[in-house]
Specification:
The chain is mostly helical. Helix content is about 55%, strand content about 10%.
Length: about 130
């Protein structure tokens, strides 16, 4: 059996989405091709679980620090799963989409506009 999911199978995508706070509007945003290219270039580093390496009996770290470290590891692991989902979507559909809150989507739109302006300036400088 192929490890690649069939096109249209949303099982993997649904497991990596973080729920938005209640009452928050969200929308699907297409992932920037530059981001996907970067992820493809560094794919061998994606999907590795972030280990929680602090032994319970290590008295150098208190319970609060161990709990904070475990929460950080959970966040890193969710982000890693999200990156793998993005690449899975890209391979299946030729593009990838992620669900963002309206505020996140607006910030992403502004960054995309800035990248386009910067690229246009770079192109103008290169042609002169």
């Amino acid at each position: 059996m192929s490890s690649k999911k069939a096109a249209g199978d949303k099982g993997e995508a649904a497991s990596t989405k973080l729920p938005a706070p209640a009452g928050t509007k969200t929308r699907l945003v297409r992932v920037d091709q530059g981001t996907i290219d970067f992820m493809l270039k560094h794919e061998k580093h994606l999907g590795r679980p972030y280990p929680v390496v602090i032994p319970e009996d290590d008295d150098r770290f208190d319970a609060g620090y161990r709990a904070m470290h475990a929460r950080a590891a959970a966040i890193v692991n969710r982000l890693s799963e999200r990156e793998l989902d993005i690449l899975h979507q890209y391979r299946d559909k030729g593009y990838a989409e992620i669900e963002l809150t309206e505020a996140e989507a607006e910030a992403e739109d502004e960054m995309a506009r800035k990248r386009k302006r910067d690229q246009a300036l770079d192109d103008d400088e290169a042609s002169n």
